[in-house]
Amino acid sequence: MTTSILFDKKKALQIIDETIIQSQTSEFARHLRKAGARALELILAPRLIVEYRSWLTDEAERNCTKTFAATLYNMMMHPPSPGKVILGIDPGFKEGMI
Q1: Does any domain span residue 60?
Q2: Which residue among 30, 36, 42, 61 has the highest number of C-beta atoms inside a 10 angstrom radius?
Q3: Residues sharing a CB contact under 8 Å with residue 32, sequence separation 6 or more, in sequence order
Q4: According to the per-residue pLDDT averaged within each range, which of 6-10, 75-79, 80-84, 90-94 is highest?
Q5: Domain tally, the chain
Q6: Mean pLDDT for the chain overall
């Protein structure tokens, strides 16, 4: 499964530039701008994808648990079929626990 995030790269780079570069006239501004772009590409974007996938997985597990609980509750509260013999065996009885 692949996950990707669509975002405005120009806006992200602008925010990075405003955060990192304190003086646009500095001789290092060009190098800082390139470093920010590279960090966005190699570190920030992949990390955002990992965080988003983690959040999606957690959300799916929560919803799965809720669905399972609701289904189990409905199954357990459903009356047995009329005329059918229902048998339940206690696993503790088999092992000698009383």
Answers
A1: yes
A2: 36
A3: 17, 20, 21, 26
A4: 6-10
A5: 1
A6: 85
Residues near 3 by beta carbon (within 8 Å), at least 6 away in sequence? 49, 52, 53, 56
| 90 belongs to a structural domain | no
Residue 62 belongs to domain spanning: 9-79
Task: With H, G, I as helix, E, B as strand and everything else as coil, classify residue 74.
Answer: helix
**CA 64, CA 42: separation in Å to the nearest integer?**
33
DSSP class of residue 41?
I
Residue 58 has pLDDT above 60, yes or no: yes
Give per-residue pLDDT as tens, 33-48. Answer: 999 999 999 999 999 9
Q: Is the pTM here over 0.85, yes or no?
A: no
Residue 16 lies in a domain: yes
Report the C-alpha gap between 4 and 97 in whole angstroms. 54
